[in-house]
Every structure is written in structure tokens, then in C-alpha cells.
């Protein structure tokens, strides 16, 4: 047992006292289902009502405590309620909360901190747009690239997720998202992302196939592409399945853009702020972007997003080029500046860089014992575990990944899916998670695998006897039916299946 004096998390997680959803959670989920839109998705995946977050753990209203390997989808790189962020918010709350675009000490402090952390040529040589969401900042970045080049046309990759805000939804690759918007698509050129596990353009042999295809789009007068202003890329695919591209991909992409006067936009919304063991994932490749999109963890849990662009990119932008009432909220800026300071001053980046490969090795060792896992990949604390029906065909097994999500929830571990078929479980725990909680989570992960392999089929709403969990209760657990997440029924309303 480790010394818990410096723990940020609940030390007894996971602890299940009422199999989720517990009685109070059911009440709150029912109220939400009656009064909130049917479009809400997460209560179907995690049918709990959180009460308090602490470090890398969450306690729900029924007293259950969960190890959080979701982290708000990479929003909480510093965990829930990091003490330094709490202190920064308390200080700012006593001054001013909302200022439109007027300069405040909090605003200028954030700008200085951010400029000093940016990658490549953006370091201390960037101009900043503020926004509220990742999708909005991506759309702004593309608009900026079009304005700067005088061209329209953005290369975006298969598997990409760049938000569902307005026109940005068309930069995201999933068809299901395109049906939710009435905004025109603009000029989006879709190119396969180099996926070493599922290669389309020879990604198993590096990025040459992808670059060759891009050259074809630019050089062939009959390629069907009129102009390209920018290439928009995630250094590691996020919602697309935590795909790590070949090492030569980003450097080759940078060279391609330079050859043709195209701007490189790097989306660090999910990969940034230490997630991969460096401040920015693009730093692993040594590539310098022209524009970078930042959101999620930059606000420490408060809505804040940023577009940083080369200060020589445009001579002047028209006033009001990008507007929004809640951009650069003073409270979010205070949390953001402190987030950057925590990451710069402490050892979290080094620890993530060292613990990441250890975790990757542990997940791969588990995969060696369980053939339903086809691939384990990732960098730092951004790891993906892909489920397949068999390793030869590599047929995606989304149903099994969802069953694992439910089985882990029952064991007090939160983990979410991604990938084209929801076949990838992704590890995205807060960087501050304690080693002992990582160990308990890994034990629960393999226990869930063994339970499903033993033939325990998910039964919707199947009752489970309460059982204690915690440090002393992580021996192999008996086979049992795993309940699928289900929001309590609302009279007159049929709930959709889990197809998101």
C-alpha cells in the first residue's frame, strides 16, 4: 500500500455500495430524461449521477466511487478540482468574472503563459484568438487560413473529429454528425488517415502513400480539387480510435504544405496539455504548425478554447473577424493560466512520458492473454485498446467494447469507446492519477475481460447483488450478468439503443 499523504483522489476507489445506477441516481436520471432533450448521450453510457470529483476519482449520489479513466474526454488532465486551480478560481472570483474583450490582469497573464508554451515557431511568436469550444476554434482556424491564403479548401482526414459546431461538423468525418446540421459544408477534401493497423494508402509502410495521394490532389488537373488553403490534422486521432500515425507522417505533411503554400493547422484539442507526455503532441515529431487549436484541458474544466497562429501569417484582420460574448471568460482564464503553470513547473510531463510506456506494456500483456483484443497503441496517457472478432480478419467488434464499458462501470472504473465502430476503449485518465489506482484499474479491466470471455452476456437491467469493492476486493470476481447502461424509462418515450 502506498503512502496516501499526497493523494488527490479518493483512496478507497473503486467502491461500489449500490450497483449502478443506484436508487438516487435513477431518480436524477429519470428527471433528466423527462426534462432534457433526447439528444443527450452520456447517461446511456454511464448511468450515474456524479456528486463530487476528486483527483482521478468520482463519487456519485449513491456513495459509489469510481476510478475515472475518462477525465471528461481529456478535459481534466489535472484531475477534478486540482488544489491550485481551486485557489486560482477563488482569487479571480473575488475580482471580476466577465469583461467582454477588455484587458484584465487575468487575460494578459494567460496570454503570456500560453505564448511561452506554444510549439515550434509559435513559441513567443503567436497571435491569439479566444473561443469557448473546440469546434468553434477549429472553424475559426479554417476561416483564418482561407483569409490568409485567399483560397478555399481544407484537407481533413478520415476518422477525424473536429467538433460539431456549425460548419466545423463537416470537418469531422462521421456521417452521423453531418445529418445534424443545416450549415453548408464548404470545401472539405477528405483523405484517409495513415492507420498502421488498418492501412488504406500504405500506412503500414509509413506516410508515403498518404503524401503521394495529396500530391495527386494538388498536381493532377483532373483530381477534382480546385484549391487547398490548409491541411487540418490531429497528431493522434481522438474519436477516430486513438490511432498513432507513422513517425514520418507529420514531418512529411509539413514538407508537403511548404512545397505548395498550404497552411498546416494542428488540432491539439484532445492531444494537448501534456496528454501524450509533452505539452503538445506535435512536439514528438518536431513539426512547427502554422495554426494550432487548443481547448478541453486548457480551461481546467471551464469552457475555454484558443486559436494560436503565426504572428506573420496575416498583416491585419478586420475588426470582428471572430466574435462571441463568452470568449475569454475571466474565471476560465485564471484556471487556464494556472493549468499551464502547473504543467510547466511540475514533473507531470516527465511522469506521463515515463508511465505511458509502462501502461502500454501492461495493456499489451493483457492483450496477449485475450485474443478479443486486436491492437493496443498510444502515447503517454492517450492509449487505445481495439477489440476485434478475430485477429486475422481484424473485424471490428464494437459490441464487445461497449460490453466492456458496462462491465467496467459495474466494477467502478469509467472508460469510454471511440473508433469508427466504437470498437476501441480509450485510456484518458487524469495525469495526476496515483499509481495504485492505475493498478486497481488494470486488475478490474482484466477481470471484466475474463467475465465476458466466460460467457456472461450483458442483460439489460439484470439485477446484481451488491458486493464490496476497494483495495482488498480486487481478486478475480465471479462470473455475473453485466447490466447495460439504461436511463430509467420515461412514460411515453422509447429510448434509443447505444449506437453513438
List keywords for this structure.
alpha/beta, Aspartate Aminotransferase, domain 2, 2 domains, 4-stranded mixed sheet, 14% strand, globular
Q: What is the CATH superfamily label of the largest domain?
A: Type I PLP-dependent aspartate aminotransferase-like (Major domain)
* Biggest sheet details: 7 strands, mixed
Q: How many helices?
A: 13
Question: What is the spatial order of strands in the main beta sheet?
Answer: 4-10-9-8-7-5-6
Radius of gyration: 23 Å
Q: What is the count of structural domains? A: 2
Q: Would you identify the regions where 5 or more consecutive residues have pLDDT less than 50?
A: 457-500
CATH topology of the largest domain: Aspartate Aminotransferase, domain 2
The assigned CATH architecture of the largest domain is 3-Layer(aba) Sandwich
Helix-strand pattern: HHEEEHHHEHEHEHEHEEEHHEEHEEEH
Query: Which of globular, elongated, flat, extended, rod-shaped describes the shape?
Result: globular
Describe this structure in words.
This protein is α/β, with parallel strands linked by helices and 500 residues long. The chain is built from 13 helices and 15 strands. Helix 4 runs antiparallel to helix 10 and helix 5 (105-117) packs parallel to helix 10.
Concise structural overview:
Helix content is about 30%, strand content about 15%. With about 500 residues, the protein is of the alpha/beta class.
Summarize the SSE layout with pairings.
Elements lengths: L22 H13 L6 H4 L4 E5 L2 E4 L4 E4 L2 H4 L8 H11 L11 H13 L8 E6 L2 H16 L4 E4 L17 H4 L9 E4 L16 H12 L10 E4 L15 H12 L2 E5 L23 E4 L10 E6 L19 H16 L2 H22 L3 E7 L2 E6 L10 H13 L2 E2 L1 E3 L5 E4 L7 H19 L47
Parallel strand pairs: 3-13, 5-6, 5-7, 7-8, 8-9
Antiparallel strand pairs: 1-2, 2-3, 4-10, 9-10, 11-12, 12-15, 14-15
